[in-house]
Write a structure and sequence with these properties.
Layout (H helix, E strand, L loop, with lengths): L2 E2 L8 E2 L6 H9 L26 E4 L6 E8 L4 E8 L5 E6 L8 E7 L5 E7 L7 E2 L6 E7 L4 E8 L15 E7 L12 E6 L15 E10 L5 E9 L7 E9 L3 H6 E9 L18 E2 L3 H6 L5 E9 L5 E2 L4 E5 L6 E9 L8 E11 L5 E2 L1 E7 L6 E2 L4 E9 L1 H7 L5 E9 L4 E10 L2 E9 L10 E9 L4 E9 L7 E2 L9 E8 L4 E7 L6 H4 L3 E3 L11 E4 L8 H8 L4 H13 L2 E7 L33 E2 L24
Parallel strand pairs: 21-24, 25-35
Antiparallel strand pairs: 1-2, 3-4, 4-5, 5-11, 6-7, 6-12, 7-8, 8-9, 10-11, 12-13, 14-23, 15-18, 15-22, 16-20, 16-21, 16-23, 17-19, 17-22, 25-34, 26-33, 27-32, 28-31, 28-34, 29-30, 29-32, 35-38, 36-37, 38-39
């Protein structure tokens, strides 16, 4: 505990020196000064409240002046915050879906000039002084200050059933913060900001780090000047003396320019078909190259790097695996890995260079289970299609029961972590789980997806996945500001819909996805003939050959020129993409999927040479939504009805 709450009517004090060793070390490395509140004390009467979940501590500002910690008491469904701020004025903390003041749930607290702590419950009505709530839902536990700092401990229910509050759910949340020089609630000028969090997420902190070792996979190369690029480099592992377990990952994306231009990166394990891994050695230490350009694919061994080890997205933080799980390495004395970096450079700036990569934490002390990862979603093909100026347009990808029957052992596997991923148009995502004629509780959901905050999300309870189960991943998009269609692709202005699933014990499965058969769209759009061109920058879309007046236009260019996106056409396309059976796309280390893209982002375009998908080996498997009883989450506030504002 960061705070020790003594019995009623006793003295409270804040003592950062009581931090756990891991938290304290993390703070020290950020140059944070640890303060002890022993100078001025305030005696108050409070109710004793202690959380039964993980306690998380984060620095909200850039200068180390505003710290917040929180934990959940799941038995009573409340959240407890502790705020320590370098001020003797008021402290403001708000919960906002979109990051601004408007409709935010705001708490203001502090210690007044008379030495008594105070608290107020407000809601934002724009960029002005917030308005007091009719119902007070924030509760003060304690408040202290000394000559420089103020500390308050507060709590509220996760869902207050109050229209003027914001429910705390698994969705991504913006914590808006501010503080004043005095206790007068006036405009806070530069002492304010926003910090993105997942308040209900758990966190894994290793208890025994004595055997941990570290190896770095980091690239220092000039960023390509194209608007986006996938840049691949080959790296050699340390020399292993037997099997080790990877137990953690610390992303190395430190500078402002690195954060701005590194959209995501993936680490793959490389394995040559004939086990002649020496083919990777000549590429170790070189500057790397485009991952999937035709020239690079012909001269670099990137196609042999398929097994995902780790995926990091913008805003992601360090990840430690549960203490009974580790990712196995060391089957050979030396192993090779590929770092694939998605650089985002929309303004095509030049002469920019920065470090990007990850520090891998491993140990020779083996854990009980080997971990693995596979992807679920819609294959990166142009049938992932979003009309312009559309709100709440949904794309779906299925992991079929046939795929899980073939790929998952009878005893099943356990999912313990997920990373949800779309690009800039993504707004909501949900990973659904079906078994037989019943839908189970959703594995993951985020109705407030934040493109610049893509982090691995440990599950509070591991989920068992059995043969015959179906997973369905839903992505909801907003293109209301876009005048043209958006299709699947690898640029951030294109779209994806996929979730990276961590599980154990490790099996050969790499991906379990699906795609809508794009040829079904051609007649409705008046397209008579197309060709498919290999190449990364083709975005997995066909080239139109007929009608002849649109010859050599891309699929997207044709739609932008020829199609009038009426509401009726938009709705018809939504129903078609959402509910029509998909082609199941299941891939493992030994069984490639229907398309090359499925194998861990290998974007080699689709293989057909005419207007049909006849060149793809026929697969009998189709997959759609099962006919089941859908899961309905418990409604905490039934009396509020459908007009309850989930802001």
């Amino acid at each position: 505990m960061l705070f020790n709450e003594l019995e009623k009517k006793k003295v409270f004090f804040f003592n950062f020196l009581k931090c756990s060793s891991v938290t304290k070390q993390n703070m020290e490395t950020r140059g944070v000064v640890l303060y002890v509140f022993l100078v001025v004390t305030v005696t108050v009467t409070v109710t004793t409240v202690n959380g039964d979940g993980d306690r998380i501590l984060e620095q909200l500002d850039q200068n180390g002046k505003f710290f917040a910690s929180w934990e959940i008491e799941f038995s009573t469904k409340i959240i407890i915050f502790e705020l320590t701020v370098e001020t003797i004025g008021y402290i403001g903390l708000g919960l906002s879906v979109h990051g601004g003041m408007n409709n935010a749930d705001i708490m203001v607290a502090g210690v007044g000039p008379n030495g008594k702590p105070y608290i107020g419950d407000f809601h934002g009505i724009g960029n002005t002084i917030p308005r007091r709530d009719k119902q007070e839902d924030w509760v003060l536990l304690s408040g202290v200050e000394n000559g420089t700092h103020t500390n308050v401990r507060i709590y509220r229910r996760l869902d207050t059933c109050d229209n003027e509050d914001v429910p705390i759910t698994s969705d991504t949340m913006n914590m808006i913060w501010a503080y004043g020089v005095t206790d007068d609630l006036v405009y806070h000028s530069h002492t304010r900001g926003t910090h993105v969090v997942n308040l209900l997420d758990t966190v894994t902190i290793p208890t025994d780090t004595s055997t941990f070792k570290q190896w770095d996979i980091i690239v220092d190369t000039p960023m390509p000047t194209t608007s986006f690029s996938y840049w691949c480099t080959i790296h050699k592992s340390p020399r292993f003396l037997g099997i080790n377990h990877i137990v953690g990952f610390k992303p190395f994306v430190k500078t402002k320019v690195a954060i701005e231009h590194t959209h995501h990166f993936v680490i793959y394990k490389c394995e040559a078909p004939d086990h002649n891994n020496e083919i990777f050695e000549p590429f170790v230490g070189d500057a790397g190259g485009e991952c999937y350009g035709e020239k690079e694919m012909a001269t670099r061994p990137t196609q042999y790097c398929k097994n995902i080890l780790y995926d990091w997205g913008a805003g992601g933080k360090e990840l430690f695996l549960p203490e009974h799980v580790g990712f196995p390495v060391g089957t050979r004395n030396t192993e090779y890995y590929m770092l694939e970096i998605h650089y985002n450079n929309p303004t095509r700036i030049t002469n920019v260079q920065f470090l990007t990569g990850v520090s891998i934490i491993y140990t020779p002390k083996l854990r009980k289970y080997d971990a693995g990862m596979f992807t679920v979603g819609h294959t990166v093909l142009a049938s992932l299609l979003l009309p312009p100026k559309s709100q709440d347009f949904k794309i779906v990808g299925h992991c079929s029961p046939e795929c899980t029957t073939r790929g998952i052992p009878p005893e099943g596997v356990k999912i313990f972590n997920v990373l949800l991923h779309t690009h800039l148009a993504g707004r909501k995502m949900k990973l659904r789980h079906f078994r037989g004629n019943k839908e189970l509780e959703w594995i993951a959901k985020d109705d407030s997806y934040h493109f610049n905050f893509q982090k691995n999300r440990p599950l509070r309870e591991e989920r068992k996945l059995f043969p015959g189960d179906q997973l369905t991943f839903e992505c909801t998009y907003d293109t209301t500001t876009r005048p043209n269609v958006t299709i699947a692709g690898f640029s951030t202005v294109n779209e994806m819909c996929e979730v990276f699933v961590w599980y154990y014990p490790k099996i050969p499965m790499l991906a379990c996805s699906s795609f809508y058969d794009i040829q079904r769209l051609f007649p409705a759009f008046g397209i008579k003939k197309v060709k498919w061109v290999r190449g990364f920058n083709k975005d997995s879309q066909p080239i139109v050959l007929e009608p002849v007046h649109m010859v050599n236009r891309t699929f997207a260019e044709y739609l932008d020129t020829e199609i009038d996106w009426t509401n009726e056409r938009r709705g018809s396309l939504q129903n078609e993409l959402h509910y029509t059976p998909h082609i199941a796309d299941c891939a493992s280390a030994t069984l490639p999927g229907v398309t090359q893209e499925l194998q861990n982002h290998l974007p080699q375009a689709t293989p057909p040479t005419n207007n049909l998908l006849n060149d793809i080996p026929p697969r009998p498997e189709l997959v759609a939504y099962p006919n089941t009883h859908n899961y309905k989450p418990f409604n905490e506030c039934p009396q509020m009805g459908k007009f309850y504002m989930k802001r």
